[in-house]
Amino acid sequence: MANPYEMRFNYFHAAKDLLTSEYQSKLDRILLAYNDECQEKHDLISALTYPTREDIFALAEQIKDFADKK
After folding, report:
1. pTM to 2 decimals?
2. Which of 19, 40, 42, 61 is such that its CA lies 20 to 30 A from the CA of 4?
3. Is residue 53 part of a domain?
4. pLDDT score, position 38
5. What is the pLDDT of residues 22-67, one digit of tens each?
């Protein structure tokens, strides 16, 4: 059984992996859907935001709360 520090570390990594995977999936869909010269493609890519530390911590907290429920 993991100690509380290991559990928080696992929640953090799960949140980071989920958010970065979601970001990469969105980027891949944009890159596949539009031609290189397309201004809309550039605009969509510019609108994407890479997950911040605060985003990761917030999702990790949600994962922790979910795991703590009985």
Report:
1. 0.70
2. 19
3. no
4. 75
5. 999 998 888 887 766 677 778 888 888 999 999 999 999 999 999 8
> What is the model's pLDDT at position 32?
81
Tokens linked to 18: 């989920």
- Rounded to a whole number, what is the largest CA-CA distance in the chain? 53
Sign of torsion over alpha carbons 51, 54, 60, 65: negative
Place of tokens 């992996």: 17
15 within 8 A of 63, measured Cβ to Cβ: yes
Number of domains the chain is built from? 1
Positive/negative CA dihedral, 17, 23, 26, 27: negative
Using the CB atoms, write b or e for 34-43: b if 16+ within 10 Å.
Answer: beeeeeeeee
Domain assignment present for residue 8? The answer is yes
Tell me, yes or no, whether 50 lies in a domain: no
